[in-house]
Amino acid sequence: MNPIMTVKDLCLWYGSHQALKNITIDIPEKSITALIGPSGCGKSTFLKTLNRMNDLVPDVKITGDVRYRGEDIFDAAQDVNELRREVGMVFQSYNLFAHKTLLDNVTLGPRRIRKISKSEAEAEAMKLLAKVGVDSQAHKMPAQLSGGQQQRVAIARALANDPQVLL
Predict the structure, then answer these.
(1) What's the angle, vertex CA 133, arms to CA 109 and CA 50, rounded to 5?
(2) How many C-beta atoms lie closer than 10 Å to residue 114's C-beta?
């Protein structure tokens, strides 16, 4: 099976602290890959590197090669917004928009990023909310749900942008 992502000799430093050291891995398309390790070993740092979320962190230095579908994700010509749409991420600590309903939380990305109509975005969102088991609560605010239900909404929100990879 062809890799959708390839990583070779990836190193990352936060200032003088090296958080990742010589990571090399091929991630096959249409597969599930698990990263297992103790707290603080770099799992989240590695995942954030795959969709360039570490670009937003000051004093980060990255070396090595990371490719998505054969293209260098650190190339200056890389459209970072498109990369992040295709390589979605659900954070361990997620932030739903508290002032928006669950439905609005899930439709925001497709409407702004994929440029689809409100009605099409809402239809897709309802299907995703049904998949994660909270469609009957689509018009509630996030604070009205349990933490586990909110996490499922965060997953639906990530899937709404139709990513090719979900971290």
Answers:
(1) 45
(2) 14
